[in-house]
Automatic annotation (TrEMBL), chain A:
Entry-linked SUPFAM superfamilies: P-loop containing nucleoside triphosphate hydrolases
Boundaries of every ABC transporter domain copy: 41-261
UniProt keyword annotation of Cytoplasm present: no
Protein name: ABC transporter ATP-binding protein
Any Pfam family matching the protein: ABC_tran
Keyword terms, alphabetized: ATP-binding, Nucleotide-binding, Transport
A GO molecular function held by the record: ATP binding
Automatic annotation (TrEMBL), chain B:
Keywords per UniProt: Cell membrane, Membrane, Transmembrane, Transmembrane helix, Transport
Topological category with respect to the lipid bilayer: Multi-pass membrane protein
Top-level taxonomy: Bacteria, Bacillati, Actinomycetota, Thermoleophilia, Solirubrobacterales
Record localization: Cell membrane
Main localisation: membrane
Transmembrane feature ranges: 56-75, 87-109, 115-134, 155-186, 211-232
Organism: Paraconexibacter antarcticus
The name this protein goes by in its record: ABC transporter permease
CDD domains the UniProt entry points to: TM_PBP2 (cd06261)
InterPro entries for this protein: MetI-like (IPR000515), MetI-like_sf (IPR035906)
Family the UniProt entry places it in: Belongs to the binding-protein-dependent transport system permease family.
Domain ABC transmembrane type-1: 49-227
Amino acid sequence: MPAKGVMPSPTRTPGASVATEEHHAVVLDGVRRVFAVAGGRRLGRATGTAPEPVVALDGVSLSIARGSVVAIVGPSGCGKSTLLDLVCGLQRADAGHVGAVGQAVLMPQGDTLLPWATALDNAALALRVAGTPKAQARERARTELEALGLGRFTDSRPDALSGGMRQRIAVARTLLSGAPTICLDEPFGALDAITRAEAQAWLTGTLAREPRTVLLVTHDTEEAALLADRIVVLSPRPGRVVADLPVGLPHPRRATDPGVVAVRARALDALGAAGRG
Amino acid sequence: MLAALILLAVLGGWQAYAGLSGIDEFLLPSPTDVLNAAWDDRGLLWDNFRVTAEEMGVGLVVSLVLGVGLALLLHRSGALRRGLYPLLIASQTVPIVLVAPLLAAWLGYDLGPKLVIVALVCFFPIVVPTLDALSSTDPGQRKLMAGLGASRWQLLRFVEAPAALPALFTGLRLAVAVAAIAAVLAETAGSESGLGHLMTQSIPQLETARAFAAVVVLSLFSVSLYAALTLAERRVAPWAHPPKGPVL
């Protein structure tokens, strides 16, 4: 995309032209995102220092197949979270196009559960926001939590739940939005290794039960290799796609499977090469 | 428990000083004098207490409505916040002692002017923490709601309002603590009843022990209100506090 910097009127067009191919749930085409950050001096305007633009993403093009799990890995600050914001319509691209078929719902970093609400009411939040009456939303949330093996936590408030359970409730809340595409930002990043492995296995089972298109941002190549059908590696800022690795391994996977180890090694190589470049 | 011990120690010292120094009862009544006065004048104290309790109670409800309303309004609109906040702060510099007699002249000797003064003093400690809490909700939770396509109202309903509830209670507790002073001030400026009125009447009549008894009644009422608020907060906002622990 040589002309990406000068593309006019950047838009996010849900279900529109850019995502025409039926098997694509999300399409990014030459996406660029720039943040204006105040210059070195505090009173930039007064002293005549122009704000210094920071390019978060540059020339990112991706087509994400419906029902696939795509891991986005990259060093911190490479624009991974920005990419999810763009897909979910929380930010607009400065150039290029972002298209999503149907709604894409974000699970922000950290569990962002509401501390005053029970697990049940937290899970029901997406439905409540969508206008479902309280009783009905709770009933559906209860059914979903039970189906996902979280039924015994329904009446607990988040402060009574372990980190792993909180993340699962947050994933359940995201699924209950009914959106065909869900964007998970470091869903298990704050968990210890054992809890994380359990949560990953749980997510694999959950997605087998309820297939969705998933964008999974992670800094953990092992997590990417265990969960994803495809791994997209971004370079340090400005984030560009430096590797696009199909995984093609059957589930369930273990971290020690030769296939997983090999894919992980390729992702790490790509990260390393991007970091040096 | 500790508070009771400290109180006992202070009362003991006070009683001993009043007894040993031979100081006149109308200058410094001993705790037992105050207790006797409280018993002898219980009917008088009760009647005047009801007047002051009404001023404080209704005044606090007015402050609550006004405080929450203003907090929501200023939270909703940045322009209103910039325009009104300085005025709210300025309202707190109004010298109540000077304004109270004027209010009595304008509005009469009954409940009206007292409500104005109690509300003027009490709405401010409610607005400030509530407004701060409304506008400092967790950015992650805001992002979550934005991602779910929540409206401004839904953000308030599901996130901002519950997040601000503990701060509202903090403000209410501060308001309760200053409501008694406000009511007494308002009564001294012009009234025919109430504990503040009783206090100002008792001193020139050399019934100092009765004035002290009125202060004790008022203190007990304030402390009870404060404790009741803490209990209410535990029911309404249980996530913000440990389930057990002292009420005061």
